[in-house]
Amino acid sequence: MADTVSVVIVGAGFAGLAMANELLRAGISDFVILEKADRAGGVWRENTYPGAACDVPSPYYSFSYAPKPDWTRRYAGQAQIESYLIDIASDLGERIRYGLEVTDAWFEESDGLWNVRTADGGAIRARIFVPATGQLSRPAMPDIEGRERFEGASFHSAQWRHDCDLRGRRVAVIGAGASAIQFVPRIQPQVAQLTLFQRSAPYILPKPDGEYRSIHHRAFRRLPLLQKLERGLWWTLGEVWTLGITGNRRISAAVEAAARWQLRRQVGSAALRHKLTPDYPIGCKRVLFANDYYPTLTRPNVEVVTERITEITTGGVRTADGVEHAVDVIIYGTGFATQEFLGPMTVRGRAGRELRAVWADGAHAHLGMTVPGFPNMFLMYGPNTNLGTGSIIYMLERQARYIRQAVEVSARNPGGLMEIREEVEQRYDEEIQRRLAGSAWAGCVSWYRSASGRISSNWPGSVSEYSRRTATLSLADFHTTAVPLLD
Question: Looking at the record's lineage, which domain of life comes first (predicted)?
Fold first, then answer.
């Protein structure tokens, strides 16, 4: 007989830990987290490429109730963020069960429980099912002919081969996104030749990074308000930039001018500047931050190729102009399968209906958390909750607060079910898609969109708006069974 708990959470990254801590802070302890790896960390455990760091300042990219006064830099590196998450997870003790990868979950209508099965054949049952696997957990490999034919070393940046010595090698980097702008400057001094294959140029802003010294650490410990003030500053800047993405042309023009100024200042060659100039509205794709990326691309051993890749050969990369670029190593900086929410899990709701089928034309959920036909299931970092600016941690804390209210309702009414009304979810989704159609994200093809063209990733407003809209769970939005209204 499988164990039964009130809540099962899948994933021990920022999302899962945010949910667990919200429950504990409310005095709710009957939950478990199922984590496939041997430690917490999520994306910050998996991405260990050289230069991996956050592009949100650390005081803002951390839990509001767990500030860290001794960050070494304003933009913390991967190892320090992972360490932060491991410290947070250590307070949860045996509530986290490591080494358990969830393969499928299904809602059993006869008893109103979720059955969650793991790869080792085990199972657990829960009143409430909270997938917290995020949007950036599965590396995406490009669909390029001949990938398997390449005779050299090749790997995705999220699965970095630390045993692959790049010194003196000819290296191809396919992709020029958020990961590439961090690892390219780190590997360029080691390699004989670096060929960057860029499909579209990103907008890149100066990165206001800086070292936190011991004097800062002492000040943050003695006067926590100082770190809160810095957090508040970055929160405010994020809210302002959101206005630019969602329609304020003066703000977007100012940010674009800053990006173009950096490009002119750091790249002297007009031909290279032309290659590195975006051809889409700013904000449509992720805006990046770096001080050393452009200068790296001007080095003698670096070439930027914008011709379309037609195939991978046994010895290199062939482009549409017929040129075969001979390389020894290929690194894919091609991002993540952002539209495969919850993959590779199979999730079935009422009548055995698969969530994958419900989301065939693009994922959608009320407030990014609840889906009709899937009672007592609440998503963390679900559809349309990603941000073009700001900290996703802020969003996760608000989602955890909302879901915690559902857990409290369930605790007062054992056996009760909550299922979002279809008309509520549909009305919300229509609003979100209408607003997204008028945003910068509608101006190009990006990882924010599904194959159907639907923008399934991003939230179209400010984080303060999301906070307001998720502050109170309204049971009127749900079909309920044996559940009274909240007091």
Answer: Bacteria
